[in-house]
Amino acid sequence: MVYFCCMKELTARQKEVLDAIRTFIAQNHYPPTVRELCTILGISSPRGVSKHLEALEKKGYIKRTSGHRSLVLPMEVPLIGKVTAGLKTLAVEELEGYLSMEDIFANPNQFGLKVKGDSMQGAGILEGDVVIVNSDAEWINGDIIVAIIDEMATVKRVKQDKYGNWWLEPDNPKYEPLPLNEEVQIVGKVVAVIRKYS
């Protein structure tokens, strides 16, 4: 499993510029020019936009190449909700933002979930972490997965006991294993953990 840290946080204005770039690319399938961003953002000076682009590039949110339309967005994974690592909680798919994963995760079947609870602390997955889940990956005995039980999402380690029974096991002795049966839907395998340090 891969662990890595988030990029630096954006100011409100930098986020507005980044959102404008994302929206423009989504609508036009190519990046905006500096002058087009001036118009969109209501900034009179191209230098003002350039300063924001420099900050975004320094923080790793964009790349700039030579040419008229020189903006490139790194590959991003949508952050779509939260998953519990303690008591179960309702899994609601709601876009919370984007995580840039260029050159790390290229699989389109991956998404991020924010962890709530401490049942996986023995595996190094702590409350507030984001787990990256591959919905297409095959899992085996001992893998950490995300499962849905009674419309609740949870992250656990899948284990088979000596009798051939499968369990969803926490990595914290405070919690009991859950049986892996036909009522459990495995959403995907956890392939990475992101932790942000303040």
UniProtKB/TrEMBL annotation:
Its EC number is 3.4.21.88. Coiled coil: none annotated. GO terms for biological process: DNA repair; DNA replication; negative regulation of DNA-templated transcription; proteolysis; SOS response. CDD domains: S24_LexA-like. It holds the Pfam family Peptidase_S24. SUPFAM superfamilies: LexA/Signal peptidase, Winged helix' DNA-binding domain. Residues 78-191 form the Peptidase S24/S26A/S26B/S26C domain. It comes from the Bacteria. It is an enzyme of class 3 (hydrolase). Keywords: Autocatalytic cleavage, DNA damage, DNA repair, DNA replication, DNA-binding, Hydrolase, Repressor, SOS response, Transcription, Transcription regulation. Residues 7-67 form the LexA repressor DNA-binding domain. One of its GO terms (molecular function) is DNA binding. Belongs to the peptidase S24 family. This is LexA repressor. The lineage of its organism: Bacteria, Pseudomonadati, Coprothermobacterota, Coprothermobacteria, Coprothermobacterales.
